[in-house]
Amino acid sequence: MRIVCIGAGRIVKWFCEDLAFSKYRDKIKLYGIYNRTKQKAEIYQENYQFEIVYEDLTAVIADKNNYDLVYVGTSDETHYQIAKLLLSAQIPVFCEKPLALSYHEAQELYQIAQDQQVLLFDGIKTGFSPAYQAMKADIQAGLIGKVQYLRASHAKISTSGQIPNPQSNDQNFAGLHLAGGVYALFIGLDILGPIKTTMHLNNSYPNHPAISTSVLTNRHQNNGISTIIASDSLTSDLSAEILGTKGYIKLGGNLAKYNQDYRKDSCHMAYTYQVYDTNGNILKNVDLPLTTKGEGLFLEIDHLYELWINKQLASPIVPPTISLAIIEILAKTNNTNDYEVVAIKGGKSE
Question: Which UniProt keywords apply (predicted)?
Fold first, then answer.
């Protein structure tokens, strides 16, 4: 599989370096790269042995017969336009989250992918963690009974060690909500299923209207409840708790052991989980560490290769239904209106 990368920042660096940890590394080649600043792309070409540096997106599209897929690792606000151009040209796309900053834009991308019969993969990494997959199997086996409540958190400062300081006139700054809020919300949707209504309490940055801290309380269609906490400016142990009728699970949060920036035991790329009964007795303690340059990106690369080789057009781990639901919920709650209860209807008229 021959891959073209768009972008030359931290995420694309992780992609290139994590390829070394993929079980399919001998079957995948970094073919081409494009970045608006060509000099940066040329540095990546030298460091990671890309065959070609493109002058522009037009050149990327014109060369589509020489590669199999494009990885989009640019800034959030550019994803929609870039992915739309590629998909419209029948080019398979692995796009970093978020696919778009609005539900209807994301829906349009999936529709184009369906019409063109090409793969569109939304890069939400949470479900690829071996610990998460093992935990989900335990839940499905009934180890904690029926799940009725969960809490999941993503505190970006705890992940990276950095606090954003946006300028008041930065119109491209999306903030935490439409980016970092994705991971914890994935857990709620994946474990409890579709959300019926959501209430939100959000705070914005002192000098910018973008959301810095968000608390969503969701009623799921199966009557379960979830609380999703995300913040750019506050910290937490990055864990999730899943409460069932026979016990509970704590996913991630072992920062005493895993506390390196971008390689922490976060619930959005967990290394550990513990299972407890209703009396608080531990039933199971699982520790599945990863060797990764960037939050387990090689696991997504493995999955991507399997989708490509099997000619699948959608991921069963991050299906379009969950991808679209996340963007709809985050777009509808991207404000500081404390009195709003939002109905989640999958883009249908309300």
Answer: Oxidoreductase
CA pair distance 119, 19, nearest whole angstrom = 20
CA distances from 134 to 3, 79, 270 (A): 30, 32, 11
Query: What confidence score (pLDDT) does residue 350 get?
Result: 44
Q: Is the pTM of this model over 0.85?
A: yes
- pLDDT tens, residue by residue, 91-146: 999 999 999 989 999 999 999 999 999 999 999 999 999 999 999 999 999 999 99
Question: How far apart are alpha carbons 225 and 150 in whole angstroms?
Answer: 7
Domain 126-287+326-343 indexed as CATH 3.30.360.10: yes
Of 237, 107, 228, 101, give the one whose Cα is nearest residue 175. Answer: 101
Through-space distance between the first and last CA atoms of the chain, rounded to whole angstroms: 43
Judged against a pLDDT cut of 80, whether residue 159 lies above it is answered with no
Rounded distance, CA 148 to CA 165, Å?
38
Q: Go through the chain and tell me how many residues it has.
A: 350
Domain boundaries, the chain: 2-123, 126-287+326-343
Just give the CATH number of 2-123: 3.40.50.720
* Cα 84 versus chain centre, distance: 19
**DSSP-derived 3-state class of residue 279:** coil
- Tokens for 212? 């810095």
Neighbours of 158 (CB within 10 A): 19
Report the Cα 109 to chain-centroid distance in Å: 17
Give per-residue pLDDT as tens, 236-289.
888 999 999 999 999 999 999 998 888 889 888 999 999 999 999 999 999 999
Neighbour-count burial of 262, counting CB atoms closer than 10 A to its CB (0-12 exposed, 13-18 middle, 19+ buried): middle
Task: Give me 143's structure tokens.
Answer: 């180890």
Percent of the chain with pLDDT strictly greater than 90: 73
DSSP notation for 179-243:
TTHHHHHHHHHHHH--EEEEEEEEEEETTEEEEEEEEEEEEETTS-EEEEEEESS------EEEE
